[in-house]
Amino acid sequence: MTRPPLGGRFASVVLDVDSTLTRLEGIEWLAERRGPDIARAVAAMTQRAMEGTIALDSVYGERLALVRPSRMDIAALADAYEQAVMPGVRNALGVLRAAGTRMVVVSGGLRDAVVPFAASLGFPDRDVFSVTVRFAADGSYAGFDAASPLACRGGKPNVVRALGLPRPVIAVGDGSTDAELKTVGGDTGPAVDAFAAFVGVASRAPVVAVADVVVHRFSELPDVVLGIAAPHAI
Q1: The CATH number of 12-233 is which of 3.40.50.970, 3.90.650.10, 3.40.50.11540, 3.40.50.1000?
Q2: pTM for the full model?
Q3: Contact at 8 Å (CB) between 166 and 146?
Q4: Could you give the CA distance from residue 39 to residue 108 in angstroms, rounded to a whole number?
Q5: Is the pLDDT confidence value at 5 over 50?
Q6: Which residues does residue 110 pair with via DSSP β-bridges, in sequence order?
Q7: Which of 3, 36, 75, 145 allows an S-S link to 132, with CB 3.0 to 4.6 Å?
Q8: What's the half-sphere exposure (Cβ side, CA atoms, 13 Å) at 95?
Q9: Domain ranges in the chain?
Q10: At residue 205, what are phi and psi to the nearest 5 degrees?
Q11: Is 193 an annotated catalytic residue?
């Protein structure tokens, strides 16, 4: 594994979506449209999964079965994502693109919402990896791609390894599935060389504990990625 020197430059960045690029947790936003009982149940499951106290696999389908988001619901979520984009995201991404940094979006979110939101930030479809939802002819919920690695614990590392991104790679996210990119090893070691815990929306102690760097605002990210600031200085 190629590790950058302290304060060295990362060639690639893997970005989460929910509670990272946008302030929203998409499944919770959708659940709120179904009333307070479902909203509370989904929020509790999401919290436990993001802290890593239960496996994502055990709640992913259950949350969707409760919410049953329609095609129209998910289109509305795409708009809500964009309205809730985190301050400084567009500028940070622009700086990194200008520097030639390779960037991809890897999310356990729902593809029909994630792709248009990512497109608004300049990401083509080929650089966005998320979970497909199926709809009936009338646009009602008909299931999701249960075989997607992004709906399972340990799935993000497998997806990122398969991409063959230029090294060194740093991942940025808020949840346990993002931290797995650094903590879950494979035949060639972890999927990334460093993990930045983004705490601008939610700070989860188990996630922060394994991070190489903590990022509070997106304005900090270019300095970390480009080696202008040493990780321990943030």
Answers
A1: 3.40.50.1000
A2: 0.91
A3: no
A4: 19
A5: no
A6: 131
A7: 145
A8: 15
A9: 12-233
A10: -55, -45
A11: no
The active-site residue, picked from 16, 73, 174, 223, is 16
Given 18, 73, 178, 223, which residue is catalytic? 18
Tokens of 221: 């990210």
Is 18 noted as a catalytic residue in this protein?
yes
Element (H, E) at 135: strand 133-135
Give the model's pLDDT for residue 53: 78
DSSP 7-53: TPPPSEEEE--BTTTBS--HHHHHHHTT-HHHHHHHHHHHHHHHHTS
Pick from 22, 132, 151: which is nearest to 80 by CA? 22
Give 85's DSSP letter. B
The per-residue pLDDT for range 104-124, each reduced to its tens digit, is: 999 999 999 999 999 999 999
- Model confidence at 7, pLDDT cuts 50, 70, 90, reads low
Q: How far apart are CA 93 and CA 222, in angstroms?
A: 8
